[in-house]
Amino acid sequence: MWSRLYWLAVGGPLAAGLLVMGADPTPLQDLRNGLFDLYQRAAPRAYDPDLPVRVVDVDDASLARVGQWPWPRTTVAELTQKLTSLGAAAVAFDMVFSEPDRLDPAAVVKLLPAEARAPAEAALAGRDSSDRQFATTLAATPSVLGAILTHGKGAAYPEKWGMASAGDDPRAFVPRFSGAVAPLPELAAAAQGIGALNWLPDRDQVVRRVPILLGLDGKLVPSLSAEALRVAQGASTYVVRASNASGDQAFGTRSGITAVKIGALDVPTDASGEVRVRFTPTDPRRFLSAADVLDGQVAPAELEGRILLVGSSAPGLMDTRATPLDAAVPGVEVQAQLIEHIVAGARLVRPDWARGAEIVLTGLLGLLLALALPRVSAPVAGALGLVVVAALGAGAWLAFTRFDLLLDPMGPGAAVLAIYGMGVLALYRDEQRQKKWVRSVFGRFVSPKVVERLAENPERLVLGGETREITILFCDLRDFTSLSETMDAQALTRFMNAYLTPMTEVVLAHGGTIDKYIGDAIMAFWNAPVDDAAHARNAALCALAMSARLEALNAEWLRAAEAEGRPWHPVRCGIGLATGPCCVGNLGSAQRLEYSCLGDDVNLASRIEGATKSMRVDILVSEATREAAGDLAFLEADLLMLKGKSKASQLYLLAGPADFSRSDDFSRLEERHGALMAAYGAGRFGEAAALAEALAASAPPRLSRFYGLYAERCRGAADPAAAPAASG
Predict the structure, then answer these.
(1) Is the pLDDT of residue 251 over 50?
(2) % of residues, the chain, pLDDT over 90
């Protein structure tokens, strides 16, 4: 149980699991991201149209009505003016205006032939360029322009914000870049904010985190969404909180950025200044067509007081991203969802303590399982392991749905399953060796099914005699002597095998132990050697199943006889059941032992089986069996003096299973049966005869011969010598 091999078997996967979780390789990160994506798909954030964010979409309809992109800067300026006049809190462009307007009239004139160029230039003299007009509009607008950070050299990146920090220097933790593709200096100078459009997808190109801050040439620069929030609130400075700030308990460790304050909004971030977004499924209510805005077809309430992100969903412009919920969404929608996430106060955090807690939990669970495995059976340990795995999954799901925490149950769960598997394999040889001993020693005494149960639970073995309550079944064929006289030895052997094999299968299927075969008779019992709390009920159900199986066998034998052109008479059996205390154990001599039972109720069951012939029924049970069998359908049979008994025994017919006992048919049968017994007991034989004849015609076929017997008794009541025998 506690061998070195066992500890190596369970310690190996535990150590391997802890090492892998500590190293956190990229494939494990990918699996974890996939799991967290499943969380979001199962319980996404619901879209709230009242949040102050909209996307002004340069969609396909806008391109069809206004023209292909890029639009003239004058058109963009007109769009900006309309948004501002309708009360936009901020207008942020998810695009980079890094080159002069190619559609500016002055630029177009230069493409004209020389003879036509001079008059056109004269006509345009004194006119502001499209970029100058756009810059003028930006200066009068709470506007934010986009830029892209690169790892090369780039244009100047004007700062429109202040930056303060507390704790460790946040520049050490953010993604760093050395250059930028920035807006034209004229436009950058006019705008109130400039935000980076960079997105940092994972290896599978899915955007799960969006940066709030990035590093550019030793400085911190905000993202487009952060700048849109700052400008919309009229704030001037970002306050960055990092590890070891006042009030933080980092104990000197440089764990990274913890939050960024943007105006009145305190935005929790991960260590690198990114926000893991709680996404919603894409929703058309988030989008307003740019063409509709230009045409004045958008309700002012959709624009007033909102942050308006100008971007494009047109597939031809190739600005699409994948999120945990959608395979392709416009890039501007990612920015919009981040702003919604922040404004709504949503949180989705993979806490910095999570990995350490998961490693510690893996170690504790692995050790507990390793200690428990040798003490319980493999199925119990497996069930325990599955419960633990399910609890880990449920706990992680609860942490996500209730506390917005992302915890990974896969590492601890995989370790638990691996330890279980290896531990079971290590214990398997000892367990099989023990089972082999049980089968070789005890298999001579009980049925194979019981041997298997004992092999699984050897602690239940009691090799000496013990007294316990059991239910005994005797089953015997009717007129077997006459039947055997019609067959030769080989035919009789084939018949007995064809009869005993299925009947034995029925007994074993109902949990019985075959005690012995006595010629054509079968003796079996329940509740030994293993416990069976419902032994009387199981034995009674077995008797019903044996009766039904014999009917099926008769049908098969009849078809075979007809095919061979020989006569066949139905085979009948009688089954007797009794319940009571008996001595059960290894009985016999020093040379031969059998696991069997002895007691008064064994004899009673045998006598009851004999009484089935005179009572013309297939199943009779004792009063104790009826009381213990519960909800099955029983009917009073008779009070008979059985052979070898000093007092009469009350016997009962087993009419059917529990569903029959609850049926209307049984209720009517029970009522009419009671009336018959009452009339017969009171000596009203004429009335009883009529009731018995009616029951013989309407009762289930298994009981009709019993009621025929009572009809004969009643008809012969006036002549006792003519009445059929009533004792067994």
Answers:
(1) no
(2) 51
Pick the residue with more confidence: 249 or 479? 479
* pLDDT of amino acid 568: 83
Rounded Cα–Cα distance for residues 307 and 336 (Å): 9
| pLDDT beyond 50 at 1 | no
- Tens of pLDDT, residues 619-631: 999 999 999 998 9
CB environment 401-423: b (16+ within 10 A), e (fewer): eeeebbbbbbbbbbbbbbbbebb
CB-based contact 215:240 (threshold 8 Å): no
Other Cβ atoms less than 10 A from the Cβ of 664: the count is: 7
Q: How far apart, in whole angstroms, are the C-alpha atoms of residue 244 and residue 187?
A: 39
Q: What is the pLDDT of residue 725?
A: 47
Instruction: Give the list of residues 6+ apart from residue 693 with CB closer than 8 angstroms, or none.
Output: 707, 711
Per-residue HEC secondary structure of 577-600 comes to EEEEEEEEEEEECCCCEEEEEECH
The pairing of beta strand 90-93 with beta strand 513-518 = unpaired
What CA–CA distance (Å, rounded) separates 431 from 6?
Answer: 13
Q: Are 329 and 321 a contacting pair, CB within 8 Å?
A: yes
Q: Which residue has the tokens 């069996």?
A: 625
CB-facing half-sphere around the CA of 77: CA atoms within 13 A: 20
Element (H, E) at 714: helix 701-715
In angstroms, the CA 475 to CA 522 distance is: 5
Distance CA 96, CA 104 (A): 17
What pLDDT shows up at residue 167?
87
- Cβ proximity of 627 and 664 under 8 Å: no
If 0-12 CB within 10 Å is exposed, 13-18 middle and 19+ buried, where does residue 155 land? middle
Q: Would you state the pLDDT for residue 419? A: 80
Query: What would the pLDDT profile of 524-579 be if each residue is shown by its tens digit?
Result: 999 988 889 999 999 999 999 999 999 999 999 999 888 988 888 889 999 999 99
Q: Residue 496: phi, psi to the nearest 5?
A: -65, -40
Q: Are strands 213-216 and 219-222 parallel, antiparallel or unpaired?
A: antiparallel
Provide the token pair at 189: 């100078």
- The one-character DSSP state at 197 is -
d(CA 708, CA 710): 5
The Cα–Cα gap between 698 and 479 comes to 27
Rounded CA-CA distance 78/72 in Å is 10
Rounded Cα distance, 707 and 649, in Å:
20
Q: Which of 339, 306, 310 is nearest to 97 (CA)?
A: 310
Report CA-CA distances (Å) from 686 to 348, 692, 709.
87, 10, 14
- Other Cβ atoms less than 10 A from the Cβ of 502: the count is 15
Mean pLDDT of the chain: 86
Residue 223 is given by DSSP the state B
pLDDT tens profile 271-309? 899 999 999 999 999 999 999 999 999 999 999 999 999
Q: How many CB atoms within 10 Å of residue 703?
A: 23
- Reading across the β-sheet that carries 162-166, which strands appear in turn? 162-166, 237-242, 257-262, 265-268
Report the run of H or E that residue 73 belongs to, with start and end.
helix 73-85
Under the banding of pLDDT at 50, 70 and 90, the label for residue 111 is low
pLDDT tens-digit series, residues 55-76: 999 999 999 999 998 999 999 9
Q: Which of 35, 79, 85 is nearest to 57 (CA)?
A: 79
Q: How far apart are the first and last CA of the chain?
A: 57
Contact 227, 149 (CB under 8 A): no
3-class state of residue 217 by DSSP: coil
